[in-house]
Amino acid sequence: MELLCPAGSLVGLRKAIDNGADAVYMGLRDDTNARHFPGLNFTDQQMQQGLRYARERGARVLLAVNTYAQPQGWLRWQRAVDQAADLGVDALIAADIGVLDYAASRHPDLPLHLSVQGSATSAEALRFYEEHFGIRRAVLPRVLSMAQVRALSESTDVELEVFAFGSLCVMVEGRCLLSSYVTGCSPNRSGACSPASAVRWEETAQGLESRLSGVLIDRFSKEEQAGYPVVCKGRFQVEGQVGHVLEEPTSLNTLSLLPELMAAGISAVKIEGRQRSPAYVAQVARVWRQAIDACRHNGDGFQPREDWMAALAGLSEGTQTTLGAYHRSWQ
Fold first, then answer.
1. Do 231 and 289 fall into the same domain?
2. What pLDDT, in 10s, does the model give residues 61-81?
3. Binding positions for [4Fe-4S] cluster (predicted)?
4. Rounded to whole angstroms, how far apart are CA atoms 257 and 42?
């Protein structure tokens, strides 16, 4: 099982690998990847440096070209695919059928992974992508229960990758309609939900207020830790009550599911967060490295250590974690 960690920068890439990542995923500094925050991601030169650093330490590098190409910008997506092939990355992560088709036909030796944005949840869907584009791996959407993940693994030869740790929200795998509605910017085209240009902070007599395109998202007292303003995790007033009416701030943590994921033949566990700091990546990678190694050594007796869970909870949104849909008893 591969530990796949985010690399939002060259420093983040080094921290991930130094702390146990088997592989990292990164993106270019444009709208070909869904997390092109200002100041993050890679130039051509930095990608070369990152690849060299990873190669010297036996780690793999994946490039995310995972947004849906816009007609007026198609050449950027073509160029991104060509860059991935020229650099010799270990795999290209994509969802757009046009991008997959271009990559498969122009660079047949470039391994392809189906992005989570492809939303493939059945053996038939995976077979389509495998037959038409030769994908080797698919990132599963975070809507499947553990039983469904297990059943899917038994019915396909395509490698499966699952999200293991990181932020959760009510988006449709990267396509946040709430953020698009409030900011007028698609997360796919703008690099993030809640683009920084739409965010405003203000100290008021009632507390620290965060707004998105002028819409009040949350208000924090002096004792509270302020989170980044996103619509789905804001606190709103409904029928006189203020609370998280859409979703509680929480992070996915599947550490306790490691034995089941290994037994199901899952090829990789993915850590979310290319926008997170290198320190965050280092801490999460270190915990997951230790946990995977412990589970390999003694799967039957594996139990997440308390210090691992405390460390991950401290890095989680709202300092709370969940098993999300994996734990869902209904289908």
1. no
2. 999 999 999 889 999 999 999
3. 169, 176, 193, 232
4. 33
Query: What is the tally of structural domains in the chain?
Result: 2
Tell me if 169 is assigned to a ligand binding site: yes
Q: Of 228, 244, 260, which marks where a domain is finished?
A: 244
- pLDDT per residue over 27-59, tens digit each? 999 989 888 777 889 999 999 999 999 999 999
Residue 175 φ then ψ, to 5°? -105, 90
b/e map of 105-135 (b: 16 or more CB within 10 Å)?
eebeebbbbbbbbbbbbebebbeebbeebeb
185 is in an annotated binding site: no
- Answer yes or no: are the C-beta atoms of 126 and 146 closer than 8 Å: no
Q: Helix crossing, 74-87 with 44-56: angle to 10°?
A: 30
Indicate whether 153 and 84 sit together in one domain: yes
Q: Are residues 152 and 185 in the same domain?
A: no
> pTM of the full predicted structure?
0.91
| CA 312 distance to own-chain centroid | 16
